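Notebook, student rotation project (T.W.).
Task set for the rotation: take a protein with a known small-molecule partner, predict the structure of the complex, and write up what can be learned from the model alone. Partner molecule chosen: pyridoxal-5'-phosphate. Sequence and SMILES entered below by T.W., checked by me.
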Amino acid sequence: MNAPNQSGWRPEMGSTDAAPSGTASGDKALMLEEPLIFELGRPGTCGVDIEAPDADVMPSLARFLRAEAPALPGLSEPEAVRHYTRLSRQNYAIDLGPFPLGSCTMKHNPRLNEKVARMAGFADVHPLAPQQSVQGALGVIAELADWLTTLTGMAGVAMSPKAGAHGELCGVLCIKAALDARGEARKVLLVPESAHGTNPATAAFAGFAIENIPATAEGRVDLAALEARLGPDVAGVMITNPNTCGLFERDMKRIADAVHAAGGYVYCDGANFNAIVGKVRPGDLGIDAMHINLHKTFSTPHGGGGPGSGPVVLSAALAPYAPLPFVQRQGDGTMRLVEEEDGAHEATASFGRMAAFHGQMGMFTRALAYILSHGADGLARVAEDAVLNANYVLRSLENDLDAPFAASGPCMHEALFSDAGLAEGFTTLDVAKGLIDEGFHPMTVYFPLVVHGAMLVEPTETESKAGLDRFIGSLRSVARRARQGDPALKGAPHFAPRRRLDETQAARKPVLAWQGDRTAD
Ligand SMILES: *Cc1c(COP(=O)(O)O)cnc(C)c1O
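Predicted structure of the complex:
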């Protein structure tokens, strides 16, 4: 294939005419440019007919009348609709192509989930509705809770945390409550250096001191270093399994036994549960608390249909400290949401409350729909296919990109590469930006930190072999250009609606609101 030129036109696209350098409108066929809505509007234009207020009818409201028109952009209805539709076409979405973001498990969100979540009996319930009127919804929470404890082999589950990081906080607060109950003030949480950033952040937020545990050369937790550090000041460990190098921590049971023997607890970051669901039960590995990202393992990724939800499964040692409220199945088959007012705080050892209500109902319905439509066998197949797809990516690209742990054996659900071997001056960022020109969302970059210039690719099980081959072909092409030092790659993306942005300024000084007309305030 010929290299594309600056304008995006390729000779093989059919015409032998010279390509134009631009168009009068700024649009390029179906690639649409779009200004800000404030730059589009005209004062005095309105998309809807609003009747003039009748001061005679509402004298008491007259003082609320505006003296001046609000500083809103004036657009007709079709202009407003087109504006947002044009913007939406500049976006990338899971329904357009794969999101190979390692650790994020961005899988296809089955339409069945959406249909179920939109059923009026679920979509229209109110969290303050009388319990006898929402027995079905409470039943969904209880049934999902049963699935989660069964799949993980754990004693209990806290359903209310709203995302993975929130679940981590819930689990670590359970550990703290259990230590308090024992009258012990253990202050240190051990966190491997490959941990997701939310792990040390959670530990610090809950008031623990963090100490790092090194990784072995093959990318796993250094068991000897961990054992050497255990002692009466150690509250426990926070370990991601499968870990963020895409590897299964084979010593997990030995780690857990050692931590328990030293009086500590084992928190497992279960964000990568997709790789082992239906295959391994964390409870059998000695884990005390683990959050499950419903929005990863059980579909509905961020950007693909919903918010997050991070239930935390708990061992018998930690379950009594679970937060309120929780759903309890009564002897007569009815469901009860157990709250503080019921005296639950005294009856249980609950550490308190994580959220105003019982959790993300919309995610519960979607996750349960996903689980029921797969069944236990289907969920095991999910894990198998996710691991197969990641290994296909790893082996297909190990000669084009440095794969630091390829010798450690098969990976789990994600393939890790480093920037070793790229031409002088070429970085992981150049590879990521080059992928955008190829029409793909980039992989996770510069994480985990144990590898220089990390590129973490998680295809998930929902990509076909043909789709994977297309992605692999593109990443291989970009990787080769980075190894050969193709100067055009330094300017990528050339074909996206915007070029390279200043990522530091975008994070440090985000401009999130229209500021063009501040003097009018
Ligand atoms: C996604 C993720 C988290 C955080 O989950 P959120 O739902 O985004 O808060 C924590 N750990 C790992 C390994 C993850 O991949």
